[in-house]
UniProtKB/TrEMBL annotation:
It catalyses: D-mannose 6-phosphate = D-fructose 6-phosphate. The keyword Hydrolase does not apply. Pfam families: MPI_cupin_dom, PMI_typeI_cat. This is Mannose-6-phosphate isomerase. The keyword Zinc applies. The lineage of its organism: Bacteria, Bacillati, Bacillota, Bacilli, Lactobacillales. Binds 1 zinc ion per subunit. InterPro entries: Carb_Metab_Reg_Kinase/Isom, Man6P_Isoase-1, Man6P_isomerase_Firm_short, MPI_cupin_dom, PMI_typeI_cat, RmlC-like_jellyroll, RmlC_Cupin_sf. Transmembrane segments: none annotated. GO terms for molecular function: mannose-6-phosphate isomerase activity; zinc ion binding. Its EC number is 5.3.1.8. Belongs to the mannose-6-phosphate isomerase type 1 family. PANTHER family: FRUCTOKINASE (PTHR42742:SF3), TRANSCRIPTIONAL REPRESSOR MPRA (PTHR42742). GO terms for biological process: carbohydrate metabolic process.
């Protein structure tokens, strides 16, 4: 039996801060408040469905559990990564995620280190990355007094920027930004500040002040590092965006035909722009903007052709 790529259908998530930009990826939006598309996910809050081949119609979490041979025979309890596309029509809450130790102890799931590739950003768009408190006491004082202007560090962003956001980093995505996020498979978020917004029922959303103070890095004045490495081939620019403890993330700009060889047990692949083809063994698969798929263990070589912007990632074994 030949191993095929696993193409996925996934779940749209409505959010207070969402918009309608994700329709540009070919997704049918049920409202104009869609904040997230969980493009490659085995998390119980939004599981992807396999569209093709032997496993068509099956959920990714079940295939991961029952066919570990497709995933490097990993011993990980859960599928380790989650790929999302986010449409921030308004500011997301100022938030932080715990590390694995705190997450497992207090929430019963992994912590969350994540990273963002900025797909598009309106002029002047900003994110929050880090904070200015020098001690946990000062942090608590500034949060409790609402001294956000002095506490929060803002960074201007543009399309093509990339940010690695380790667990413990104060962060928020600003209005007018669409990103692809690669993260640990976790849905634990501690809100520090939510701009005093109310939901549809007129209620303020829950904050998690003590948990945030527990897990935020001190000091929090890290400058976002962008140490990307680019290899220019004749028909592709191959960029290593980050190699972290949890994932490696790459950007592939294809303008022609490019051969690839596997460097990890399996890879998660997202088409952000353009169209083209994927060739595996003697089979060809059409690709277009908004497609997401997994190249499982057993696919050692593949070829991409066309004009496409692609983000690919793989988990790092523990």
């Amino acid at each position: 039996m030949s191993i095929e790529p696993l193409f996925l259908d996934s779940v749209l998530q409505e959010k207070l801060w969402g918009g309608d930009h994700l329709k540009s990826f070919g997704y049918e939006l049920p409202s104009d408040k869609i904040g997230e598309y969980w493009a490659i996910s085995a998390h119980p809050h939004g599981v992807s469905t396999i569209k093709n081949g032997e496993f068509a119609g099956q959920k990714l979490d079940k295939v991961f559990d029952q066919h570990r041979e497709l995933f490097g025979n990993t011993k990980e309890e859960v599928f380790p990564l989650l790929t999302k596309i986010l449409d921030a029509n308004d500011w997301l809450s100022v938030q932080v995620h715990p590390n694995d130790e705190y997450g497992m102890k207090h929430e019963g799931e992994l912590g969350k280190t994540e990273c963002w590739y900025i797909i598009s950003a309106e002029e002047g768009s900003e994110i929050i990355y880090g904070h200015n408190a020098k001690s946990r006491e000062e942090l608590a004082e500034m949060i409790n007094s609402g001294d956000w202007d002095h506490l929060l560090r803002k960074v201007k962003v543009k399309a093509g920027d990339f940010f690695h956001v380790p667990a413990g980093t104060m962060h928020a995505i600003g209005a007018g930004i669409v990103i692809l996020e690669t993260q640990q498979s976790s849905d634990t978020t501690y809100r520090v500040y939510d701009f005093d917004r109310k939901d549809d029922q007129g209620n303020l959303r829950e904050l998690h002040i003590q948990q945030s103070i527990d897990v935020l890095h001190i000091p929090g004045d890290q400058t976002p590092e962008n140490k990307v490495q680019v290899v220019q081939e004749e028909n592709a620019d191959l960029t290593t965006l980050v190699k972290s403890d949890f994932f490696d993330v790459y950007k592939w700009s294809i303008h022609g035909t490019q051969d690839f060889e596997a460097t990890a047990d399996y890879m998660l692949v997202s088409i952000l722009e353009g169209e083209g083809q994927l060739m595996v063994a003697d089979k060809t698969y059409a690709l277009s903007k908004g497609d997401h798929f997994i190249l499982p263990t057993g696919i050692d070589q593949w070829q991409l052709s066309g004009n496409m912007e692609i983000i690919a990632s793989n988990p790092v074994a523990h």
